[in-house]
Fold these 2 entries.
Entry 1:
Amino acid sequence: MQRKKQIVILVLLMAGISYLHFSTETHSPVLHLLHRELYLAPVFLAGFWFGRKVGVLVAAVASFLFLPWILVTGHGAGSYYYIDNLLEVIVYAAVGYFAGLYRDTRISGLSALHRQRLEAAGESTPEKGQRVLLCIDSPQTGLRGARFIARNFVPDQGSAITVLGVTRAPSRDIFRSQEAWQEAKQQNESRIREAAHEARTLLERAGFPPQGLRLELLEIEQESVARKILDEWQESFSTIVLGAPRMTKTQEFLFGNAAIKLVRAAACPVIAVP
């Protein structure tokens, strides 16, 4: 999911819950308590999507939005009333913090695993960021890899991501004329080119610097996609990311699976996104 969409979802959730909260009569405490618990949803999502800082920030906003109702309806209430609501504010902060901690820890763990694999392969970790190859050989599966990078890789000014669109020329035997074959070939190239541009746009929206994003198009005919990448591309990158189609063992045997071949043969880490 793109970062802007996530922000829109958070804003809509906060606005919707706040509208219900402020439009409900003060003599309906049960509904207000329900609204108080509903604020936990955007607080959790903020931490899970953006980390501890944003999670705690959204928790503070939720507390600020709920606080006026406590002040208005708290006249004459006992100490239990204030303690209960104060504990809920603490719960907001705890949920935002620990959801963000999980997200930050997961990203740190992936980065550490990446460095370990580079060391095990006898390579040095790039000082100025990662060199990632995003391979798109199918419009259906190609964007999965871009979404995975957007969710799990930290945008870095020193990182370089190459979006490689791979087009395969169709077999001439299934077409009656050269014109029909040429038209099918151009349609396939157009779909891959559009998917590659969409992947690059998605990464830009996720915060990756445009100067670190490069778009390349590769045309192959009979050779394997995996073999072409292994022979000409893998030496220039520290990580390869690609979408993996869901195939049965029979389909893999008959048609091949580039993701599996790369995982088995590449010297650098390969992330196949199902």
Note: Residues 79-120 form the longest helix (42 residues).
Entry 2:
Amino acid sequence: MSFYWLLQYPDWIFWAALPALMLHQAEEYVYPGGFREWLNRSVFHSEDSGQPLAKPAALIVNIPVLWSLFAVTAYIGGDILWFSLPVFSLLFVNAWFHIVMSVVYNDYVPGSYTSIIVLLPLTLYGYSLLLTTWQTDYAMLMISIMAALVAHIFFISILRGRLKALQESKASE
């Protein structure tokens, strides 16, 4: 059997993104877990490992929001590439976040293994596949990566604002 169908029907890459995301989140939150606590303590330097990213917020962002977003992306695939490519690029940016943080902190960051073994290879292969099948070009690829980067920065800035508000309310007590 030939793998020609992988090139003939490149939308499979968007379907592969959802289970890759789920596997990555399992490493972050289930086994070995600890991503939320690590993020709160190491990145935000919070005294409370449960804030600014609280359990309910992590649950809402990861399951109903991201799983739904990736499921919709899998369904529409390359038909609406201006939407699906930036969503797919969230995996690429997130993988690099974990890898860079592991290097910066010289330690394991929950989610790093799946970032290196699953997310980075999947996204790089996906980008290559979409470029070689002429579904996208380098300009759209760069724009999608930038959009995913902006989304990550936006999420981090929301958490920074939440932490600042929590610290101010604690100081006024």
Note: The CA atoms of residues 45 and 84 lie 34 Å apart.
